[in-house]
Amino acid sequence: MQRPLTGLTTRNLATELTAGVTLLAIAVPLNIGYAQIAGLPPTAGLYALIVPTIIYALVVSSRQVVASPDAAAAALVASSVGGLAAAGSADYATLALAQAIISGILFVLMSVFKLGFLANFLSKPILVGFVGGLALDIMVSQVAKMLGVKIDSGGEFLDKTVGLVTGLGTANLWSVLISVTSVAVLLLGARFLKAVPWALVVLVVSTLVVVLTGLDELGVDVLGEVPAGPPALTWPLLDWTMWLALIPSAIALTLVTTAEGLLVSRSYAEKRGYPFHANRDLLAFGLGNIAAGAQGSFAMGSSTSRTAAMDQAGSRTQLPSLVLAAGTLLLLLFGTALLADIPSPAIGAVVAVAILPLLGIREFRQLWRQDRFEFAVAATCFLVTVFVGAIPGILVAFVLALINLAKRAANPAIDVLEADDDTKQSLLEDAPTGATTAAGLVVVRLAAPLFFANGAVFAAAVKRAVTGADQPVHHVVIDMEAVTDIDVTGAEAFEALEHWLHDNDVTLAFSRVRPPTRARLEELELLSGQAFFATNRAAVAALADRDGPPQD
């Protein structure tokens, strides 16, 4: 087990500390915005940067991944908890805490039972569609904030959109000016001077402008008073029915965070050459989320953007996260008065620019070019998430993942091999038949496990190879090299194929069978005296010798 802060040396200490200051400048304004997206007070976003961050940094195997609430998680919190309580109420905050705790417990269970593989069901198209739908919902609220238009940020997407459009006449000119300037600075700054924490610059400068000119008296909304002091230990007191009502959304949060978090951890571990332990990372997420729910914050995951920023800054340890926690604590103890006059349009601009990549416009274009079915999966998930809700969106995502999996599994590669094992002819339904491996012999390769989704397809393909051959077939050899498993339904289809071959005076044999697969064949009673060959060439030679030379 690696020590916390593995990789920290006297040589890179200054770099890591500098990266920590940069992370503090990035995280504080973003977390204030994410807390507002979630319908929670600014302190909920700041508290997440202290105890949960420290616990995560000391437990996680990754040396670089930064943990924090992000835009997608905040939107999911708002959409799920908003259906159970009014945003801004005490009950709403309590539900958000409970949701984080449930998510944390799920993470710990996934770590203990090594269930991280479940996140693999969230393929790229599903994540693109789901996160893109959440991002669009967030964008409507942030645009309203940037324009100074009052809408119900906890409402449905269509209601918020209608409220925004009908409220355009009430837009505040000064809010629009602050927003346009902020967006321009953020986009141009990110393009030409990436090392500068432009989000912090925007918030500081816009706050000074508001304070010096009194724009808050001209209709520009400001953040308002932020309670000072460190986070306090708490525990959500809810009826058990409310705990149960939070489980579906907590599952969604856990799965999305698992998919994104483990992907980021793995990619940076491979990129920088240090070990990656998925189950330990899940445990870190679990303990961090439990801590978040027990001290006034909300669900947290990994931050791809902040992790990338730390990598670019030269950080290779978790020290910046600890610097972030210490700096945030000092801010809460001595500097909350500095936050009160931050203009809401500037916060909206910071969050809007941060979530632009989450809309997935580039990814949708790529999917359209690469695979129309995958594009349809992403688009469906996107539309359901936007117009129905986040929880239905994640449910549809899993159904689509299973459909996609079944679609691919039901159409495996099935080929007739030539005698040299190097060339083959496909036995797909739309492919021509007529090939044989040698006179009176076909060798058929199934490049997948034999199970319920493809058993009938495989049997039909073998029959088509026998009946469609350009000369009578007396022997069928199944190349089993790629068959790693057989289930009961697949075995039944195979047994029916054996009977059909026997009735048509065609013998059956196997080649290149893996030992575990052979044991499985014996267990399913599918052998009944069939011959085994080490290679396809051996099968061709043996069966050709048995039948004699081919006849003209």
UniProtKB/TrEMBL annotation:
What membrane topology is annotated for this entry?
A: Multi-pass membrane protein
* A Pfam family per the record: STAS
Q: GO terms for biological process? A: transmembrane transport
Q: Which InterPro entries match?
A: SLC26A/SulP_dom, SLC26A/SulP_fam, STAS_dom, STAS_dom_sf
Location within or outside the cell? Membrane
Give me the Gene Ontology terms describing cellular component: membrane
* Superkingdom field: Bacteria
Residues that span the membrane, as ranges: 12-34, 40-59, 71-90, 96-119, 126-144, 164-188, 195-215, 240-264, 319-340, 346-364, 376-403
> Domain named STAS: which ranges?
431-543
Keyword Transmembrane set for record: yes
Q: Does the keyword Coiled coil apply?
A: no
Any idea which UniProt keywords this protein has?
Answer: Membrane, Transmembrane, Transmembrane helix
By what name is this protein known? Answer: SulP family inorganic anion transporter
Source organism of the structure = Microbacterium sp. LWS13-1.2
